[in-house]
Every structure is written in C-alpha cells, then in structure tokens.
Amino acid sequence: MRQRMSSDVSRTGGQVERDIEQAITALKKGAYLLKYGRRGKPKFCPFRLANDESILIWFSGKEEKHLRLSHVTRIVSGQRTPIFQRYPRPEKEYQSFSLIYNDRSLDLICKDKDEAEVWFSGLKALISRGHQRNWRTESRSDEIPSEANSPRTYTQRSSPLHSPFGSGNSSQKETIDQLSLHSPFGSPPKTLSFPDMAPYKVPLPPKGFFPPVSNGSFHSPSSGGSDTMHTHFTEWV
Asked: What is the Cα–Cα distance from 230 to 198, expressed in whole angstroms?
C-alpha cells in the first residue's frame, strides 16, 4: 500500500515538473502582455524569457528592458500592488500578476486565464529555484542551520512541486503567500476577450525578438509580420 502511494506521488511530482518545464518553454517563446506603467497607463509590450532562464526581457517603445529574476523577491497574483489598486481592472483580476523587486513592481495582464497560469507558474518556479540556490549559498556559511531554515522545511515551503496550483491550510497559506508560490487561478470566471483593449496601440516587436516556432507551439507574432499580429490581437479586442 505504501509502495503504491509512493509511486502515485512520484508520478504526480513528475507531471508537475513536466508542466513547469512546458510553461518555461512557452515563456522563452514569448507573448504580448499588457504592462501597467507608474502612471497607470497600460500598453502592450512584447515579453520573453531569456534562453538562460535568468532574465525577463521586454521592449517599451524602442527601448529594451531587462529584469533579472534573481532580483525578484516575490510574484503576486491578481491586482494587489499600489499601481493596480490605483487603477483597478477587477474584470481582469484572474489574468493579472506582479513581480516585486527593489521596492518596485512590474504589473502585467495576460489575455486570458490560461496564459496567466502559464506565465505565473513558469515564473514562480524559476523564482523559487533562485531562492533555493540563495538559501544553499547562505547555509554553507552557517555552521549550524536552524530547523526553520532546514532544507526539508524550506523545500516544503517553497518548492514549486508543493501544491503548485492550489492552497494549503491557513498557516501554510500565509507562509506560501510570503513567497507567492501558490496559484490563485483555481476557479475564476472565464474572461477570454478584451472588448475594451481596442484603443491601445500594439507596437511591432523588434525583428527576431520572438523566436520562430512550429505549428501547435506558443504563438509568435513576429513570425508572420503584421497580418499574423493582427490576427493574434483580434483575440484580445
């Protein structure tokens, strides 16, 4: 009985790991996300994850921007940051998330719940891995690590394999929320279109920003020029 339970847990963990790797692959292929500025005016920007999985890259106008994931302290679901609170879009709550770094936030809205789950799960896994690496580095300098910071306790708290798309009990949820390693996209209302996005200007991405993809893969607006991009954004507007 125990052996069968252990086998089931192993299979479940393997599936979660595969889902995370697929999400990370999708992030490398990139997507247009709606980015909120400090003044609250959102605009579409092309985003993608660098091939080495350490940097999030996007273009604002013609300027390339970077955010090292090692600088991100947490990823927050929904619209909880001061910018989102100042300019709320409650109908897009389940399509929104923020990356918190250096007392600032990168506030983003995806085109639907499914895309939000991909970006949230992929980024939270990479941020979690970075936290674990930092912990190992710090723990080597400590002669006697405390129980609260032991590898087993830390892994239970922060591993992306620990309840990746759910929430635990109240005390565990509070701890996980500090690292934002749970997904809130459990059972929201489906919002699959952006009827109010038509006024926003959609910039052309720099040539080569989105890597070429084969059929059935994550979309690549650059692969088909303006016609492909127009087709893609009719899904939003």
From this structure: 12
Phi and psi at 208, nearest 5°, equal: 85, 0
* Alpha helices, H only, 99-144: 113-140
Q: b/e map of 40-79 (b: 16 or more CB within 10 Å)? A: eebebbbbbbeeebeebebbeeeeeeebebeebebbbbbb
CA 174/CA 82 separation, integer angstroms: 20
- Which residue in 101, 115, 125, 112 sits closest to 24, CA to CA? 125
Comparing 28 with 172, which gets the higher pLDDT?
A: 28
* pLDDT per position as a tens digit, 137-166: 666 655 544 444 444 443 344 333 333 333
Among 22-26, 61-65, 193-197, the range with the most confident prediction by mean pLDDT is: 22-26
Burial class (CB in 10 A: 0-12, 13-18, 19+), 169: exposed
Record the tokens describing residue 235, joined without a space.
């899904």
Are 47 and 66 in contact by the 8 Å Cβ rule? The answer is: no
Q: What is the pLDDT of residues 7-20, one digit of tens each?
A: 555 667 788 899 99
CB atoms within 10 A of CB 217: 13
Nearest to 33 by CA among 119, 113, 110: 110
> What are the structure tokens assigned to 127, written together?
């941020």
Cα gap 204→225, rounded to integer Å: 9
3-state secondary structure of 214: coil
Chain centroid to Cα 109, Å, comes to 11
Mean pLDDT of 42-46: 94
